[in-house]
UniProtKB/TrEMBL annotation:
SUPFAM superfamilies: Amidase signature (AS) enzymes (SSF75304). Residues 33-423 form the Amidase domain. The lineage of its organism: Archaea, Methanobacteriati, Methanobacteriota, Stenosarchaea group, Halobacteria. It comes from Halobaculum marinum. Residues 150-159 have a biased composition (Low complexity). Residues 136-159 are annotated as: Disordered. It comes from the Archaea. InterPro entries: Amidase (IPR000120), Amidase_dom (IPR023631), AS_sf (IPR036928). This is Amidase.
Amino acid sequence: MHTDCSGEGLAAVADALRGGDLRAREYATTVRDRIDERDGAVHAWVDDGKSRAWLTAEADAMERRHPDAAERPPLFGVPVGVKDIFHVDGLPTRAGSSLPPGELAGPEATAVRRLASAGALVAGKTHTTEFAYFEPGPTRNPHDLDHTPGGSSSGSAAAVANGTTPLALGSQTVGSVIRPAAFCGVVGYKPTFGRIPTDGVIPLSTSVDHVGFFTRDVAGARLAASVLLDGWDDDGTDSAAARPTLGVPDGPYLDQATAVGRDAFDAAIDALARAGYDLVNVPAFDDIDAVNERHDTLVAADAALAHGDWYTAYPDRYADATAELIEEGRQAPVSALVRGRRGRAELRRTLAARAADHDVDAWVAPAAPGPAPEGIDDTGDPVMNLPWTHAGLPTVGLPAGEVDGLPVGVQVAGAFGSDERLLRWASDLGTALSDAA
């Protein structure tokens, strides 16, 4: 069953709101109408989002604070969705769990405060898998309701894809931004590790948790990044190559994709080549099984630490998958935690050295093993995202066609700290990938 996935890009919406061509109340009403009309089937929003009266009152207040269009902040009047592991003043945090919300309460997340300071309006919380792990919520894929939207940032990806918000916050510990972005056919961004603060976000693995976000357009992703990332500095005048040389990781890593997913990736590579990009096959991840194991153990050990008190107090309220992760982490030796944390930097250095040896500017890879699996009891496999997350590299997920009506995507990973350059490249990359079969 398919639904209407129409909606504007963040950049165009923000321009119209700042310039006065679109009133904040008018757009808040439009968003509220779309949630009422579309979300009953998709279930992206927790409690259907903020009420119409609440959201329009905040829009009116924003207009009173900023009557002069010339002085309006960059996200003036833009309604955003916030994954329900972020604390937001005035809204409970449930994290997709059955724990008492009072136990999970905390100060508002820095990422949320930055959006608010830039003029954005929180339209509500979006559904997440339990504690951003694997236990799914109720959200369905807007492109086909019989398929998963991915996870763990299920609601955020689906809300943007369904046109009920132009921007939504998510998080990624393995593949929780880039994979659902691919499944839902939108742009996902996971920055360099640490460039968006994670305070005020319920942790899964503090060693590899990243705050990220979803938009419908690359221009919107750059706009959101300029507000959210520490030390954003992009005037477009540095010496970055106008068209990057792209490295394709050659070896067992790509063998983790399905046959259908690999065919879709090959079509994307062909589209990039037709657009004039230089693509270089680079031997990488010969030890991918060890990298996967190291990352999984690190996440488990960190989860056991982060959830120790809650799990002790409410063991029966955790889903089986999350409980198994915590129990595994409790059994992990301290040496495994140390080895996992040390491995992040080692992998980062290895990838940088391979890129330098082959004159590669960025890496391109499948954003998921294939299109979204059928059913909503499984959010799909994040294995294609894992090494880039482990290394903490900035990664943008871009739509790259469809397979049997379901979106597929690619991910492009840049050098550590090169977020500005990566997102500048992403616009032309996205245009080229729109030609993927």
